[in-house]
Design brief:
This protein has one helix at about 1-30, and strands at about 40-45, 50, 60-70, 70-75, 80, 90-95, 105, 125-135, 140-145, 150-160, 165-170, 185-195, 200, 205-215, 220-225, 240-245. The protein is mainly beta and about 250 residues long. The strands form 4 sheets. It has a 6-stranded antiparallel β-sheet with strand order 6-7-10-11-12-13, with no helix packed on it. Strands 1, 2, 3, 8 and 9 form a 5-stranded antiparallel β-sheet that branches. The longest helix is centred in the first third of the chain and has 29 residues, at about 1-30.
């Protein structure tokens, strides 16, 4: 039995990598790279380390771009360290409560409301998470969160709802025209089931999602957003708040 185990594992691993490589090849051909001086920075499409869903065989692989230095200086030794060993897409925050275990994952380069400090100071690095690959290590099933490219700043596992869900904060466009995809462009709230399927938009386009309140008695979300009323490409107190209702029993766009 052991002599067949390694080829089986290697074959599964190869399938995952080919699946990812196909996505990266297509995404790279679609992206319009900005011209830049030779400053020691590089921009590349990479696959991040897998994230395990709590108490589940599902693994989540972030896929996106990294733009920043090719090497960093180790603070202790002063030696060069490859950026591949330094940079990650997401930082995790424990949001467990009432005996349930759950985590929130934030892209600290894009989620400017994340209070955690960046691993790398200043604006040396930009990371843009463009999709998630879900892989079930028991069944070998693998699939993308979305068929099209996204800009994911944050996602979290919600185990306190009547049915477990994953909530996502996503940027749909470079609204302020600064060539970056961050919360200043306006966040749109999405959700999926805990396997990453039935992906659905909940809050409006061209608005800044702020927060939601969950009403357990009716299994409903009330989503609060801000609309750029004065069209100045900013979201601030000169704009208007709006609320959208989402029934989680029969979810649809808010």
């Amino acid at each position: 039995m052991k002599k067949y185990l390694f080829p089986l594992l290697a074959g599964s691993f190869l399938c995952i990598m080919l699946f990812c490589a196909f996505f990266l090849f297509n995404r790279q051909s679609e992206m319009n790279e900005k011209k830049r001086a030779n400053t020691g920075k590089s921009k590349s499409l990479i696959i991040g380390d897998p994230i395990d869903y709590v108490n589940s065989p599902v693994m989540i692989f972030p896929v996106g771009t990294y733009e920043g230095p090719r090497v960093f200086k180790d603070k202790l030794t002063g030696k060069d360290i490859s950026s591949a060993n330094k940079v990650g897409f997401f930082s995790a925050r424990d949001i467990s409560s009432n005996g349930t275990v759950a985590y929130e994952y934030s892209n600290t380069c894009a989620d400017i409301y994340d209070e955690k400090p960046k691993d790398i100071a200043n604006d040396q690095v930009n990371t843009d998470v463009q999709n998630l690959i879900f892989y079930n290590r028991k069944t070998n099933e693998k699939y993308y969160l979305s068929d099209s490219a996204l800009h994911i700043t944050n996602f979290s596992f919600k185990t306190n709802f009547q049915k477990e869900l994953i909530m996502y904060k996503i940027i749909k466009s470079d609204y302020n025209g600064d060539s970056l995809f961050t919360n200043t462009d306006g966040v749109v709230l999405y959700m999926s089931d805990k396997e990453g399927k039935n992906f659905l938009q909940l809050s409006p386009d061209s608005a800044q999602y702020l927060e939601y309140t969950y009403y357990q008695d009716v299994n409903m979300l009330l989503v609060k957003s801000m609309v750029d009323k004065n069209k100045d490409k900013k979201f601030d107190m000169n704009d208007e708040f709006m609320y959208t209702k989402v029934s989680l029993s029969s979810p649809n766009k808010g």
